[in-house]
Amino acid sequence: MRNREDRRKAIAQEAQGSRSEGGGGYAGPNYIIAEAELAKLGIRKYNVDSGDKPDEGRTHSWSFLEPHAKDPCVVGLGLYIHYRIGVNEESFLCPRFMKKEFEKLRAAWPDIKIDIPEAIKHGRCPICEKRDINVNKYKAERESMSEDDRKAWHKTNIRDLEPFNGGFTEPKPNRYIAWIVDESEGGNRLDDGVQLVEFCTGGRNNAGVHKGLMDQAVDLETNEVLDILDPSKDGWKFSFNRKGKKQSDVSYSGHKLKPRREPLDQAWLDAVPRFTDVLVFADFGQIKDAYIGTPDAPPQESRRAEPADEPRRRSRADEAADDVGDELEDAMNDSPPAEEPRRRRSRSEGDEPNPTQPARGVENNTRAGQRTAPSPTDDDSPRRRRQAEEPPKDDEPSPEAIATAERIRNRQRRREE
């Protein structure tokens, strides 16, 4: 059993972060193990629904269980999820933000050994990298777009690629998972035992589950923290009502904490597995393959709408975004290694000297203004193929595009160290 002060501290920290969260989320099958695998762990999946009468809703009542002794003592583990990825509209835990979440927990709980899953140790996410590219294009093009086009393009190409709630400067998880026993009317705690529940974050306009819980757990006037993880007879039950059938109509209300007055079974506490035992972490290559599509289906990029209504001449920003996009494609095709880094081929390096390639000094002069057509034996990247097919352009990439490309190269250098 955990120290009460540790539990109160964890609840207070979660409550502090929940007050600025926004938005909701959607359940996805790709990042939680199948129910048959849960059953092997002695765990059931709890379904947060609106009951048989969605217009009236269903009241849910839970007792939260302490996490596994080797996990940090939090009410729920925050999840950062990319939704509707690729032609199959899959969902994935974001390697970039999930790694940050584990690192944050490491810093808050230094006495607990928290291992970062192997698949996300590199912290690279192809969806987030694509979002970075889109942000720079948006900044370069937004002044030329109408307000409606700007909002639509931002939502489709930036906001929909984000794995978090709230603003980019203070991202929050869009889902949580926790361990509970069912205290709802008609529930049978002895038969159902420990259950895994996944619930939405909530925000300013919709309390959701996590934010509603945190609002009840801390008295904003006195700052008193209720120990909702206390398994003793002095613990608490949490209840709320969910109503609505369609996702857009779902609402949560009536969040309450009330005394439980009876201890939880020690067998339930002992049965709780680790959070990482029930999560699925896809690696960079798996997410990239789902995002760009397969040979049997058109890649997502082919369906993307241009930000402007009318056809127009390609601008310098278009060329710059394409150049940075090629850098991103090169980076995405270089899968993060598990141990030894594999260096990406650049213009000035290769396995063996190539006598047909210009010397370094010649290449530098070319970039300075004396442009020459690339040799047929050069690395056949998309950018080089375009240069061979089109006349050289005098316009240079925008500063935003150059900065993004430099960030990509810096990531490569850090991986090689």
What does this structure look like?
The protein is an alpha+beta fold and 417 residues long. It has a domain at 4-80 and 164-277: Replication Fork Single-Stranded DNA Binding Protein (Alpha-Beta Complex), CATH 3.90.198. The protein is built from 13 helices and nine strands. Strands 1, 2, 3, 6, 7, 8 and 9 form a seven-stranded mixed sheet that branches. Strand 8 (236-243) and strand 9 (251-259) form a beta hairpin. The radius of gyration is 25 Å and the shape is globular. It starts with a helix and ends with a helix.
What would a concise description of this structure say?
This protein has 13 helices and 9 strands.
List the main descriptive attributes of the protein structure presented here.
417 residues, alpha+beta, 7-stranded mixed sheet, two-stranded antiparallel sheet, 34% helix, globular
